[in-house]
Design goal:
Layout: E1 11-15, H1 19-29, E2 35-39, H2 42-50, E3 57-61, H3 69-79, E4 84-89, H4 93-102, E5 107-110, H5 121-174, H6 182-212, E6 221-224, H7 225-242, E7 246-250, E8 256-259, H8 261-277, E9 284-292, E10 295-302, H9 336-346, E11 350-355, E12 363-370
Parallel strand pairs: 1-2, 1-3, 3-4, 4-5, 7-9
Antiparallel strand pairs: 6-8, 9-10, 10-12, 11-12
Length: 379
């Protein structure tokens, strides 16, 4: 497709205080676009947009008699985020071009290129590129909106019913709805394990969706990190006992912090759960914490099969699963460690793993966190 043809159907507004430039642009563009409107200053431009004028492309002079082109650019972008805007100026050079793009312009053309007789291919190419750039921005924004809608749908249409299934199964197994026969108990326990895995999968995808869409938010407050660790260890006891594993905690009684305790507990729950899953029966998991200067260092160690050294650098990548026959039967999304990394780094901390890859020696996951999250790092 010819570069000029790519502008067919566009509704264009040219804004320039020079009558000659307006006339030149109108004559140049009219044969190739749907319509060309003109404005001589900021007031006329605002009036056109205020009347509901819809434009696909605006050619905006940087210097106007009643307005600064940059200020007007910001105004127009706030009114209409979909139209392409190209700045046109006779001065300013690269500095003005960079500033304009940072403020939301889709392109930049110097007036000297407009008055050159004959060849205008470069001009039309710049306009077509600007229109296509804005189309990409609009498409990306709509995709993000679709992601947010999907996240909302999953939250209400999947997670809540799955949670209700878990509650119902717990009631059945507790005997509150009446005694169960052994065969019924076995089937209910099987359904319970499957439902728990289902909820875990949903929560991992939801957490990743929030992070991927930029919705991860911290709610820091004064908290005792030692109690957070105790909560995570106590919650994991039943899971560990099913595999005849021991789980221990070595930490001060109190570790005063200022952080999002709920999200850090999520980090610890995932790390301890992983340690239990990747450690065979009769193994051991140990959790320890110590305060070093203004940071707290937390270690989660296990006696599992370990991680090959060449896999350590990929652990916190999206969808990464440790290869091998021993781990192939362990279900998961491959998102857990990525979510852990994002939460820890949002707190200004770091997380890493160490292992010799020797069965029985297991792995150690270390989380280092500042005792007080700086508010400026919270997004």
């Amino acid at each position: 497709m010819d570069v000029v043809d790519r502008l067919a159907g566009q509704r264009v507004l040219t804004v320039d205080d020079s009558r000659a430039i307006r006339a030149f642009l109108q004559e140049l563009l009219e044969p190739h676009v749907q319509a060309v409107m003109v404005a001589a200053d900021g007031a006329e431009t605002r009036a056109m947009f205020g009347k509901g004028g819809i434009f696909d492309l605006v050619l905006l002079d940087l210097i106007l008699p009643d307005a600064d082109g940059m200020d007007l650019l910001r105004e127009l972008r706030a009114i209409d985020a979909d139209c392409a805007i190209v700045m046109i100026t006779g001065a300013g050079g690269v500095h003005s071009a960079t500033a304009a793009v940072l403020e939301g312009a889709d392109g930049y053309i110097e007036k000297q290129h407009l008055t050159t007789a004959g060849e205008n291919a470069q001009f039309f190419y710049a306009l077509a590129q600007a229109v296509e750039h804005r189309a990409g921005v609009v498409a990306s924004r709509r995709l993000e909106s679709m992601k947010a809608d999907f996240y909302s749908m999953v939250t209400h249409d999947l997670r809540n019913p799955a949670g209700n299934v878990l509650v119902a199964l717990k009631m059945l197994l507790s005997g509150k709805a009446g005694p169960l026969e052994p065969r019924q108990t076995s089937l209910a326990q099987l359904a319970m394990r499957s439902a728990e895995k289902f909820v875990t999968l949903i929560n991992d995808y939801l957490d990743y969706a929030k992070i991927d869409a930029g919705y991860l938010r911290l709610d820091p407050a004064e908290a005792n990190l030692a109690q957070v660790l105790r909560n995570s260890v106590e919650q994991a006891l039943v899971q560990a006992e099913l595999k005849r594993q021991t789980i221990s905690l070595d930490a001060p009684h109190e570790i005063a912090t200022f952080m999002d305790a709920t999200k850090i507990e999520q980090v610890m729950d995932n790390l301890i759960s992983n340690a239990i899953k990747y450690t065979p029966e009769d193994g051991a998991i140990s959790v320890s914490a110590s305060v070093q200067d203004a940071r707290v260092v937390i270690n989660v160690a296990d006696t599992g099969s370990g991680i090959a050294p060449d896999q350590l650098g990929h652990l916190f990548s999206k969808y990464h699963r440790i290869p091998g026959q021993q781990t192939s039967q362990i279900q998961g999304t491959g998102l857990g460690l990525l979510i852990i990394k994002e939460i820890v780094e949002a707190h200004g901390g770091v997380v890493h793993a160490a292992s010799e890859g020797v069965p029985g020696k297991g792995s150690v996951f270390t989380v280092e966190l500042p005792l007080r999250v700086a508010l400026s790092t919270v997004s």
